[in-house]
């Protein structure tokens, strides 16, 4: 039975740009601009407009003519690069955002786990939000009560149950949100990559629960993730989004292969020509990235026991404070997080013009294969300035560090650590 039927779904946003020489906008400017806008609309309605487009406003289609069907009990992985339209789709299906065009027919109760902060009232306690979410799903107070203890136990927030959720950490928020979404028996569960906020143990717990409700209770799941291993493990089908359109629909394995193949073309495009996400302010911009040795030579192939430097060039038109983040990933998942902000609490002041910053990386002990680096600039409040996925690609060559004829790839693991066996002691 078809439970989700999406027909020619589209969503348009209007993006505002700051024009050159534009000064700080005061209240009088807003009022004046509002009056001008009304006048323009009146003129255009009578055919007296000059027909010129506004350079400070741009149309952005987050989704364009998207159509697909989902059957009951399907576990569908939604994949694609950042800005491809995945999260926008889930917001429309959750009735958070209205589409610009097209239709989405849904049969059954829908529970959503989107970005942190969605679905809970910040002034209400954890206990009150559980009952509120159950009521929104159409459950009676008796039905919610039956599930209440399971939800609290799963979320591990018993001590803070009567605390307003606005005081919760992001991890606590996600734990409670997932527990509510998974236990209140929705027919359809929509999950964005919000699970990345939780710790590894809780992520494993969540994925186990999702697999349980999908396989044993016949629930339908739409799961957005950049972790291709999870997509192949959890999902039976998939949809690959590219620039707001459906690029491919098929089995989870086929969709992952199509997505990974598309990255080959992306890697050939220079960083300055890459299309950025709409959430990036671009007050500073990454213009180049290289992996170099300590001798200053550019490298695309390294040994796993070889230290290296990731060198960034940043262009900015004004002085700005920023944190840097580098993610080293293989073809399926993030393996190493090199974060100057959260992890090391280092915020840098970039001055107008071109700046260079180096990140020195000790031996990674990665096994041989293909790897890439995602690069981002963030304000101290975590607002995105610039983000370039797959900004740099490199290879780790097969390597035999001990001269035994046995290279690290043959260990069937992603990492190798330097270790030593001591002599046997008679006890």
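-> sequence recovered:
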């Amino acid at each position: 039975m078809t439970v989700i039927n999406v027909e020619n779904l589209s969503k348009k946003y209007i993006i505002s740009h700051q024009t050159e020489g534009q000064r700080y906008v005061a209240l009088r400017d807003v009022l004046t601009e509002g009056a001008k806008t009304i006048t323009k609309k009146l003129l255009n309605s009578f055919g007296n407009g000059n027909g010129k487009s506004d350079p400070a406003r741009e149309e952005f289609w987050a989704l364009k003519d998207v159509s697909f069907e989902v059957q009951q009990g399907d576990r569908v992985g939604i994949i694609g690069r950042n800005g491809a339209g995945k999260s926008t789709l889930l917001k429309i299906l959750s009735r958070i955002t209205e589409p610009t065009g097209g239709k989405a027919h849904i049969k059954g109760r829908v529970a959503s786990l989107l970005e942190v902060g969605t679905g809970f009232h910040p002034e209400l306690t954890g206990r009150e939000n559980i009952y509120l979410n159950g009521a929104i799903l159409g459950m009676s107070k008796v039905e919610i009560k039956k599930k209440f203890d399971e939800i609290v136990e799963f979320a591990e927030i018993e001590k803070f149950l009567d605390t307003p959720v606005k005081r919760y950490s992001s991890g606590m928020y996600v734990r409670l949100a997932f527990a509510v979404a998974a236990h209140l028996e929705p027919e359809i569960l929509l999950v964005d990559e919000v699970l990345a906020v939780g710790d590894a143990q809780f992520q494993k717990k969540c994925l186990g629960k999702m697999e349980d409700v999908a396989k044993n209770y016949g629930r339908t799941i739409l799961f957005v993730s950049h972790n291709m291993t999870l997509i192949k493990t959890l999902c039976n089908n998939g949809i690959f989004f590219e620039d707001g359109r459906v690029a491919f629909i098929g089995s989870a394995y086929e969709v992952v292969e199509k997505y990974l193949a598309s990255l080959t073309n992306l890697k050939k495009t220079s960083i300055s020509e890459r299309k950025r996400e709409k959430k990036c302010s671009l007050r500073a911009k990454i213009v180049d990235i290289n992996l170099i040795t300590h001798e200053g030579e550019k490298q695309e192939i390294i040994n796993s026991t070889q230290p290296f430097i990731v060198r960034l060039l940043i262009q900015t038109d004004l002085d700005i404070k920023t944190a840097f983040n580098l993610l080293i990933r293989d073809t399926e998942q993030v393996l190493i997080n090199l974060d100057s902000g959260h992890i090391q609490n280092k915020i840098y002041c970039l001055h107008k013009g071109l700046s260079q910053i180096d990140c020195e990386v000790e031996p990674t002990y990665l096994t041989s294969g293909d790897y890439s680096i995602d690069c981002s600039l963030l304000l101290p409040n975590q607002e995105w300035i610039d983000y370039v996925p797959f900004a740099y690609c490199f290879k780790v060559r097969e390597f035999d560090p001990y001269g035994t004829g046995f290279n690290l790839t043959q260990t069937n693991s992603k990492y190798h650590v330097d270790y030593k066996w001591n002599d046997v002691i008679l006890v």
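Helices lie at 27-45, 86-93, 126-136, 141-155, 170-183, 200-215, 228-234, 252-267.
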